[in-house]
From TrEMBL, chains A, B:
Catalyzes the reversible formation of acyl-phosphate (acyl-PO(4)) from acyl-[acyl-carrier-protein] (acyl-ACP). This enzyme utilizes acyl-ACP as fatty acyl donor, but not acyl-CoA. It comes from the Bacteria. Keywords: Acyltransferase, Cytoplasm, Lipid biosynthesis, Lipid metabolism, Phospholipid biosynthesis, Phospholipid metabolism, Transferase. The gene is plsX. This is Phosphate acyltransferase.
Length: 374, 374
């Protein structure tokens, strides 16, 4: 049974929601790791299917090796987007790549969500070209999950680096999209949204942040979120906020700073514990607890930057993801596919955008019938 | 012997270099903590003196209690800059505050370096007004120390939040000032300077960063540093770079993100180790090693943001610093005072300023509208 057949089977309803489009190429560790991750994921989700994009003979060998040939359709592609390719190059010369093919499969509705470990700039450029921006969105964003003290264990931060700037309207759109993602991806009924700044006082920060502060506050009701105002870098892991909104330059630096700090501390901790026999013994006794801690802050568990603001959903997995990381990104894709996230998000942003326009013109709050994203 | 007398004693040379100006007020923990930290510091540095700014009766009682009355001159002040005061308010109404008085003591050359735990915005505004910007500096910056894998144990990052923006010329000035600070504060003969961006490829980032990239590269020889090009958030603790240059908005977010991440991990580590008797025993055995690790990443050890680009040096200690933190900031101030850092920095920036002006005639393409997708 091919995914296309599944999609049209009347007994299955929205069956394409079980189908993920997976770019096997372009990750640092090669297609064997991607297929190993896919295999882990498929064994966990018996109703899931995948379309795998890459050179057919290699793909067939890998899926056969993992015993998942009956769950996977291979789309044969000859080219690969390299990590060093510029986005402009990718757009001009990328038609035969596995990445392009992976995006086409969601464009044609054969699959619900696309996942790639490849070049972020290339993936975003290609996704924008082929999937188009959703109505009301000027700049799409990448939303990432940030380990936090919240019950869900994570906060959402966006933009993590889709663009290098964002004006006040973009920041408003990020707030709406981030809230919708938190609701659908993390089950937070009424997400708390904060705007990243250098201080929490109203007079602080750049001019566009002060305008965005007001716009997001005004949109809280229709966006079905609570606006907590300005937050600071130290609030990224806090339990006072669920969604942190910022421009893609700041967000990208913050993300890599957080990861770099966590890596440094892990390194120093390991070195400390191996520094003498007494602490090695101590570490051995505490192994279970330290293992749970390692798991809690393992960046592989939060693998998957979600592209928000396109007509379909694309997920960027870390280029260096191992099979556990790939499987984590696929689980996130599966969850968003099952609930029909792309449609919910589009409806939310489109109706909020028209309201924002009305509000800008008439300076009054209309009562448009929305609330479609859960 | 008062500090003023010390200053003119011919046998002492630049004796004001032993004198620090300390604002006792405005920190979250009050003057008792500041004086306790001062006492720790003075006991460590027998040739150091301090001018302490605050209400005389309170100050006298505190220095007597710590037995440091003979090492401290009190300047009586009645008012305090509050953490919530806006910089504009501080400038208009701050003349009788301890902060103003602390800055006046370096302005009059009675002391070499001023230290305050107070309101950062107020301290910077007042320092700019009274000490004036050094020749060739448009925007002063705050340099902070970042725990790193380098032999010195720290990297320098600036601007940590003196301003919320920086153009290409400001970024060049930050590179020169940061290199001078690394040389004088961390003993790095030829510092390696990097420019913070969202990627290391030359085509990435905002327009002003591409211009600054060229300006800083051209200034490396005269500034006596190596330019390593663009670096990312993950490089802040790396040993590939000593000085990381960025605008004050990004730097402030990065700083607070790093601190927040470190705090979260420490919390989770503690919780993990206390989760069961076996790991508690393990933690007890590894106590020495864990203690050294804690010390290595203790934010109090890196306390002290140095204001660079003024005619004298001012150090901002964390508002929440305890006595160990205050003492750390005073040790940093002492070191910079002893080597005559203010003069060295001014000479370096002034001589490089003419070069910078020549270089700044390069194309300034304003907004190229370049995203990560182009």
């Amino acid at each position: 049974m091919t995914p296309a057949q599944t999609d049209t089977d009347p007994t299955q309803g929205h069956a394409a929601r079980h189908v993920l489009s997976v770019d096997a190429m372009g990750g640092d560790k090669g297609p064997a790791t991607v297929v190993a991750g896919l295999s882990m994921f498929l064994k966990d989700k018996p109703d899931a299917h995948a379309i795998l994009h890459g050179p057919k003979s290699d793909m067939d060998a890998l899926v056969t090796k993992h015993g998942i040939a009956d769950r996977v359709t291979v789309h044969d592609t000859s080219d690969v987007v390299k990590m060093t390719d510029k986005p402009s190059h990718v757009l001009r010369h990328g038609k035969n790549t596995s990445m392009w093919s992976a995006i086409e499969a969601v464009r044609s509705k054969e699959a619900a969500v696309a996942v790639s470990c490849g070049n972020t700039g290339g993936l975003m450029a290609m996704s924008m070209l082929r999937l188009r921006k959703a109505e009301g969105v000027n700049r799409p964003a990448i939303a990432c999950l940030w380990p936090s003290r919240n019950p869900a264990g994570f906060n959402v931060m966006l933009d993590a680096g889709a663009d290098i700037r964002a004006d006040q309207d973009d920041l408003l759109t990020y707030a709406l999209m981030g809230a919708s993602y938190a609701r659908n991806g993390l089950d937070i009924t009424r997400p708390r949204v904060g705007l990243l700044n250098v201080g929490t006082e109203e007079h602080k920060g750049r001019a566009e942040l002060k305008v965005a502060h007001e716009l997001i506050g005004n949109a809280a009701q229709i966006g079905d979120f609570d606006y907590v105002g300005f937050v600071e870098g130290g609030d990224l892991p806090s339990d006072n906020v669920d969604v942190i909104v910022t421009d893609g330059f700041t967000g990208n630096v913050a993300l890599k700073t957080g990861e770099g700090t966590a890596t440094l501390i892990s390194e120093l901790l390991r070195k400390s514990l191996l520094s003498n026999p007494m602490s090695m013994l101590g570490a051995a006794l505490a192994r279970g607890s330290l293992g749970r801690l390692r798991k809690r802050i393992d960046p592989r568990r939060v693998n998957g930057g979600v592209f928000l603001g396109l007509n379909q959903t694309v997920i960027k997995s870390h280029g260096s993801a191992d099979e556990t990381g790939v499987a984590a990104a696929l689980h996130l894709a599966y969850r968003l596919a099952k609930i029909g996230f792309s449609d919910k998000l589009a409806a939310r942003v489109a109706s909020a955008a028209s309201l924002a326009q009305d509000a800008a013109i008439h300076d009054e709050t209309g009562s448009l019938g929305i609330g479609t994203d859960k």
